[in-house]
Design goal:
The complex is a heterodimer of chains A (206) and B (329). Helix content of chain A is 40%, strand content 17%. Chain A has 206 residues and is of the alpha/beta class. In chain A, strands 1-7-6-2-5-3-4 form a 7-stranded mixed sheet, sandwiched between helices. In chain A, helix 1 (2-21) packs across helix 5 (77-86). In chain A, 39% of the residues are buried. Helices cover 76% and strands 0% of the residues of chain B. Chain B is globular. Chain B has 329 residues and is an all-alpha fold. In chain B, 36% of the residues are buried. The chains are: A alpha/beta (206), B mainly alpha (329). The A-B interface holds A 22, 24, 26, 155-156, 159, 162, 165, 167, 169-174, 176, 204-206 and B 90, 93-95, 97-98, 102, 104, 107, 110-111, 114-115, 299-302.
Chain lengths: 206, 329
C-alpha cells in the first residue's frame, strides 16, 4: 500500500513536471546509458531534483539517486516521505559538527552500484552563473575513478519556481547532458573543480 | 450527393465531415510514407527532399492532433471542447513565455495569468457570458497584471516585461478562447451545427497560410519586409487570401452564411490570420530565433505549437466579432 502511494505520487509528479516544463532531455556529450555515473548540475531551485529525475529515461531513474540536505528534507514527515519513498534520495548532513564523514552515505551508494545526482554548489544559487563547486565532487572522483562523471545544465527551472515561491509557473525547461569527464592524473583539487564548473557552464549555450 | 447530405441530421452531417477529414488525412499520411520510401540518387536533392518530407510530416502530425482534438471535443460535448482549447492556450502561452525572458518579480503575475486568467476566461466562454468575456482581459486583466508586477517591487524594464506578458495573454488566451466561443453562438436555424463553424474558420485560415507559403515559393517576389520575413510578399498574400476565401464561399453550405457573406467572412478571417502570423514572426525575430524549424534545437526546446496556431489566434476574435455584429447575436 505504501509502495503504491509512492508510485502514484511519482506518476503525479512526473505528469506535473511534464505539463509545467516539458522536461526535455538533450543528450549532447553522451547517450543515456546504464553505466555507473555521477551527474553533476547547476542548482537554482528545488524543482531541479524532480527535473533531472524526470529527464532521465525510466530505466535509469530507478538506479539513479539524488543527494538532498538532511536538515531540510527530513524536517516534516511529508518532506521525508517524498524524498525517501518517492525519490529514494541519499541524505547528507550539512552541519560539520558531527565527526562522521559527510560523504559516507554517498560512498555507500556508489559502492552499492547506484548512480548519483549531485549539485556541487551545495546550495541553491540565484545568480546566472553557478557558485564555486564544493570539494565533494573531487573527493568522490578520487575515490571512485571508474565512475563516469557527466556534467549537466538545467535550463530555465529557476523561472518555474524561484527560491521562496510556492506556486510553480509553466515554462519550457531542458536538461543538457554533456561529454563525460575524468579526474586527470595528479590534477589539483581547485583546478579540477573549476574545470567541472566550466563544463557545466559550457552546456548552457550548446 | 448534395441532397443526400442535406437530408442527414446535423449529427450525421458532422459525423460525415469528420469521416471525410480523417479519410483525407489518412491518404496524405500514406502518401507521405510512400514518398519516404523512394530516394533520389543525387545527394543534395535527396537531402532537400528529406527536409521537405520532414516538414510535411510535421504539418501532418499537427493536423492529426488538431482533428483528433476537434473530434473528441465534438463527441464529448461543449465543456470538454472548451477544456481542450484551454489546454492549447496553456501550452501556447507556455511556449510564448519561454521565449520572453521574465524576472523574479513577474512570478506572481505569471501565476495569475496561467492559473486565474486562463480558467476564468474559458469559464466565461462555457457559461456564455459573452459580454464579459470580450472585455475581461482587455479591461480587467490589463489592470490586474501590472498591479501584481508593481507590487513585486522591481522597476527594471517594467514596461517591457509587462508588455510581453500582456501580449502573451492577448494572443494565447484571448485570441484562442474565441474559437470555442463559436461553438456557443446561437444562430437561427443552425442548432447543433456550430462545430461546422469552427471547422470552417480553421480550414479557411489554414488554407490561406498554406497557399500563401506555396505561392511565395513559386513567385519569388521581393519580400515586403525582408528583415521580418523572407517569404512574405503582397502577391502571394493576395493569392492565399483569395484562394482561401473562394474555398470559404464553396463551403457556405455548412455555415449559417449565404455565399457572399461566407466570402466576406473568410476574407476578414484570413487577412487577420495571415497578418497576425507576420506579427508573430516579427516577435520571433526580436527574440533572435532565425528560422522556426530550428526552434526544436534551441536551448529551451521551444517552438512548434504556437507556430501552427498563431494565425488562428488572430483570426478568431476578428471573425467572432464580425459574425456577432453582422448577425446581431
Amino acid at each position: 500500500m505504501a509502495a503504491m502511494r509512492a508510485k502514484l505520487m511519482s506518476w503525479f509528479l512526473l505528469g506535473l513536471i511534464r505539463v509545467l516544463t516539458g522536461s526535455q532531455a538533450r543528450w549532447y556529450g553522451c547517450p543515456p546509458k546504464a553505466e555507473q555515473r555521477i551527474y553533476f548540475a547547476n542548482h537554482q531551485s528545488h524543482a531541479d531534483l524532480v527535473m533531472i529525475w524526470a529527464a532521465l529515461p525510466k530505466e535509469l531513474r530507478a538506479v539513479t539517486r539524488a543527494i538532498a540536505a538532511k536538515d531540510y528534507w527530513t524536517k516534516t514527515p511529508f518532506r521525508q516521505w517524498i524524498t525517501r519513498s518517492v525519490f529514494n534520495v541519499i541524505y547528507v548532513s550539512r552541519d560539520r559538527s558531527s565527526d562522521e564523514d559527510p560523504l559516507e552515505p554517498l560512498c555507500e551508494a556508489l559502492q552499492h552500484g547506484d548512480s548519483i545526482i549531485l549539485f556541487p554548489e551545495g546550495t541553491r544559487g540565484s545568480a546566472d552563473e553557478p557558485q564555486p563547486f564544493k570539494a565533494g565532487l573531487y573527493n568522490l572522483a578520487q575515490r571512485f575513478p571508474n565512475v563516469v562523471l557527466v556534467p549537466a545544465w538545467i535550463n530555465n527551472v529557476q523561472r518555474v519556481m524561484p527560491k521562496g515561491e510556492v506556486v510553480p509557473v509553466p515554462v519550457l525547461c531542458s536538461v543538457t547532458f554533456g561529454a563525460p569527464m575524468q579526474l586527470q592524473e595528479g590534477e589539483e583539487r581547485r583546478a579540477f573543480l573549476e574545470r567541472a564548473r566550466n563544463a557545466v557552464i559550457a552546456l548552457r549555450d550548446v | 450527393m448534395y441532397q443526400l447530405l442535406k437530408n442527414l441530421s446535423p449529427t450525421q452531417q458532422v459525423g460525415a465531415l469528420f469521416f471525410t477529414v480523417f479519410g483525407v488525412l489518412l491518404l496524405a499520411s500514406v502518401a507521405a510514407f510512400l514518398l519516404s520510401l523512394k530516394e533520389p540518387a543525387d545527394e543534395t536533392r535527396a537531402q532537400q527532399r528529406r527536409a521537405d518530407l520532414r516538414n510535411f510530416e510535421g504539418i501532418l502530425r499537427t493536423s492529426w492532433l488538431m482533428v483528433l482534438v476537434f473530434w473528441i471535443g465534438w463527441l464529448s460535448g461543449d465543456w470538454i471542447a472548451i477544456t481542450l482549447f484551454g489546454l492549447v492556450s496553456f501550452f501556447a502561452l507556455r511556449e510564448f513565455l519561454t521565449l520572453s525572458p521574465t524576472r523574479r518579480g513577474d512570478h506572481r503575475s505569471l501565476v495569475l495569468a496561467f492559473f486565474v486568467v486562463l480558467p476564468v476566461q474559458y469559464g466565461l466562454v462555457g457559461t456564455e457570458h459573452f459580454d464579459l468575456f470580450t472585455v475581461f482581459i482587455p479591461v480587467y486583466v490589463f489592470l490586474a497584471i501590472p498591479v501584481a508586477s508593481a507590487l513585486a517591487n522591481d522597476p527594471h524594464r517594467f514596461l517591457e516585461r509587462n508588455a510581453k506578458l500582456q501580449w502573451g495573454i492577448m494572443v494565447c488566451i484571448y485570441g484562442m478562447s474565441h474559437v470555442p466561443a463559436l461553438l456557443l453562438l446561437e444562430f437561427p436555424k443552425y442548432e447543433g451545427r456550430n462545430a461546422f463553424l469552427v471547422f470552417f474558420l480553421v480550414i479557411v485560415v489554414q488554407t490561406s497560410t498554406v497557399v500563401q507559403h506555396l505561392a511565395s515559393r513559386r513567385f519569388k517576389r521581393a519580400p515586403a519586409a525582408p528583415q521580418i520575413s523572407q517569404s512574405f510578399n503582397w502577391p502571394s498574400w493576395w493569392t492565399g487570401i483569395l484562394v482561401a476565401s473562394v474555398l470559404g464561399t464553396l463551403l457556405a453550405g455548412i455555415t449559417p452564411f449565404v455565399p457572399g457573406q461566407a466570402f466576406a467572412m473568410s476574407f476578414i478571417a484570413c487577412a487577420a490570420g495571415s497578418l497576425g502570423h507576420l506579427v508573430m514572426k516579427a516577435l520571433k525575430r526580436d527574440r533572435g530565433i532565425p528560422i522556426w524549424g530550428r526552434g526544436s534545437v534551441s536551448v529551451t526546446g521551444a517552438g512548434g505549437l504556437l507556430d501552427r496556431v498563431d494565425a488562428l489566434c488572430f483570426a478568431a476574435p476578428v471573425f467572432f466579432h464580425s459574425v456577432r455584429w453582422y448577425f446581431n447575436l
